[in-house]
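Ligand: FE2/S2 (inorganic) cluster. Inputs:
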Amino acid sequence: MHSINASNGTEEIQHFDNYKDGYKLPRNPNGWYAACLSKELKEAEVKPLSFFGEELVAFRDAQGKAKVVGAYCPHMGAHLGHGGTVVDGKIQCPFHGWQFDGTGACAAAPFAKRTPQSARSNLDSYITEEVNGVVLVWHHVQGKEPDYHVPEIPEMDLKQWMPMQHFTLTFRTHVQEIRENFCDESHFAFIHEQEGPADITWNPEGPLAHHHSHLTWKYFVKMGLTDEKYRFTCDSVFYGPGVLVSRTRGPIDSATIGLCTPIDDEYTQFTLMGTSRKVFPGLNWFNRMSLMKTAKRDVLLEGEIWSHKKPLEKPIYQAHERSMSKFQKWYAQFYDGHSQQETIPLRVVNS
Ligand code: FES
Ligand SMILES: [Fe+2]
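Predicted complex:
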């Protein structure tokens, strides 16, 4: 909290900056997050990453499996993501040539009598999985193993679906803000140009949650076609705190994968992948383009709001805004094991 002296010299105006004063949501909920897209991590490439307030690097081992390890070499602290190389499936430090395997274990230390093998000589390593063209990394504050997985989705089949397109944006907000937006009934009318609040059905299932609603696709409405005719059902599955698969079914079928990864205490990376079902050549590119263009425009509008809003301890939810508190109650499970100070998700309701 910052105090600013008002012009009369006596009154103090309290100016709250939720980022400078400490964001009121716990950092880094436990779960699977996107580290990068598969196509962004080529064989023999070392990719520096900044997530969870840490410096990481991704590379592919000798079998082509994506690996994510801590970026700082334990020898003298060089950053493996800047000048590091992949040698025989191991990541090699640019400074003095130490090598590390996909588990982070030191595998070679040139000119040393023996290869260091203590815990100190290893890199931190992260559990990874690669699915739907995404390298996922597991983050758990207590180092627990994954208790759910993100499945392969049928919409990756190029016989029936267009190749996925994507865009990536960075927002100055918490990962939960981006995710819970999907459960904010009223914003669909203002941001997404729907006729009114969304009618959301919410069914949590452990670390997964199912979300059902209806939408109209405004591109078609704007073209002079009726709302009724271009009404879609929208079925989505939240896979933990960082992955959301959403499908519209109607005159045109689409699928998106929304990926949110905490960068640090201030910023979150958001990637949206999207595709549409092939109908006939000529229309396919238009359907996918309209989906992605609409989504990007809307997310940019939301990003402006997320970047400046603050989480309220007691929002004034109305009768038609039932899903936010349900979502927050479900999402609270991903803060398990966070420190006492951090385990108080202020907006989680008790009922
Ligand atoms: S700092 Fe990495 S090998 Fe020396
Ligand atoms: Fe939204």
